[in-house]
Amino acid sequence: MAGLRLAVSCFLASLCFSSLCAADDVRVFVQGVTSIAKTDDNFICATLDWWPSEKCDYNQCPWGKAGLLNLDLNNKILANAIKAFDPLRIRLGGSLQDQLVYQVSDSIKKFPHFKKQDDGLFGFSKGSLPMDRWDQLNDLFKQTNAKITFGLNALIGKRKSDNSTLWVGEWNSKNARDFMKYTASKGYKIDSYELGNELCASGVSARLEADQYAKDIIQLKEIVKELYPDREAQPRVLGPAGFYDTEWFKTFLEVSGPHAVDGVTHHIYNLGAGVDKTLINKIQDPYFLDEIAETFKDLENVVKEFGPWAGPWVGESGGAYNSGGKDVSHTFVNGFWYLDQLGMTATFNHKVYCRQTLIGGNYGLLNTTSFIPNPDYYGALLWHRLMGKTVLATNHFGSPYLRTYTHCSKQKPGITMLIINMSNSTSIDVSVTNDENKYPHNYRMTVNGSNQREEYHLTPKDGNIQSDVVLLNGTPLQLTSSQDIPSLSPMIVDSSSPIRVAPDSIVYVTIRDFKAPACA
User: Fold this and answer.
1) How many Cβ atoms sit within 10 Å of the Cβ of residue 250?
2) pLDDT tens readout for residues 154-189
3) Distance CA 518, CA 327 (A)
4) Residue 170 catalytic?
5) Active-site option among 194, 209, 316, 454
6) pLDDT digit string, tens, across residues 10-26
7) SS3 357
8) Tell me, what's the pLDDT at 410?
9) Is 198 a residue of the active site?
10) What is the mean pLDDT of residues 213-225?
11) Catalytic hit among 194, 198, 209, 454
12) Which residues of 73-112 are buried (b: 16+ CB within 10 A; e: fewer)?
């Protein structure tokens, strides 16, 4: 215990020294009387994709053997990384899912393999999923208690119209139904099925009209009801898994009707291309980060008006498209974008946020070759363990480079606050104030905590924001000798002092004695 107190004292001293003990004072107001939004219990989600090792962008091929068909499913680090969430929500899908057939029954005569093909969607031919590989994947999911969303091929049976990207015709669901029947017969647990990938609005390589996609979703819902007659065990139905367009999404929800879709999924790549030389600047620009908020708000409102039985999800988000930024997306600085996205989407009533990817590309939570967790993995794991589903209004009048989000704590009393300091030079002393009454002239009480609070300070190794090593309370986070995820223990701090937030750092703070009626 004496050693722990000494380590904490040394870390606090280092925070003070790094800024010469000067800091801006900021009071953060948390309204604990009522909540503003709620997420799913398992808000954090990560994706696994179908890309083969030949997937290349900008003269680099960052996928290696991280695709669903060639990933090493026996890798111990991979299993331990998933297990640590208990459970981790994983979405299986991506660009090639609408070219994937399933090697089950006789509905498909030929079972191709993904190969480079200039005239194919996304430059690849069709591919197929053998059932023995599906069995192996489910062995991993069962072992690690993962919650699975499976993305189905929505283009089978359809044909290209004269328009270069529009596909028309009815969805031929036979192969999908046979696959789902096989999955159900084996007792594999599926949390949700999602139809198609990036086919809505203007699409990417292909697109569908909203009314036709709605009819396809209705058909999928009927198949789910047939194969899973127990309502309590029925997988949810998700869609449309693409980029938001108000009119397209409205039409889709109106035509599909009540309870056809359970989650309205959209994709976010608001940082632009992975090769963009200004990528690192965008991530540290609070004004740029705020631009996407309107999309989250608009979708929240459209779902509330046209599909109140469903909830909005971010079904895929890697920040920078085309596999992410080579020197940015896997490093500490990316957490400024990623964790800010988690906080922002939760305030707009989004239920789930799926990060592209768990492994694969430059934006993986795990290193593509070594499987060692990147900094964002630990940021996501702390969110999953600390942040409950009830979202509280939080604001301050300090620098825009200070981002703050608050939830009721998960399985603990009180609140947990996420604090992001994107300034590279200014430390901030944060005092937390409880807005105990939502009415004017309310009583406000500063409550850093009457006794002690729990703090988790994330900083980059050697102060280098492009490091792929993250420190927790001054100690590098490294796998144990048995390749387990390390313990993520808080620093216990006397609550008489404000929360010292160093430049270029991310902090989670749990205040157990914060009186928030919304959390009762």
Assistant:
1) 15
2) 999 999 998 789 999 999 999 999 999 999 999 999
3) 42
4) no
5) 316
6) 555 555 544 445 789 99
7) coil
8) 97
9) yes
10) 98
11) 198
12) eebebbbbbbbbbebbbbbbbbbbbbbbbbbbeebbeeee
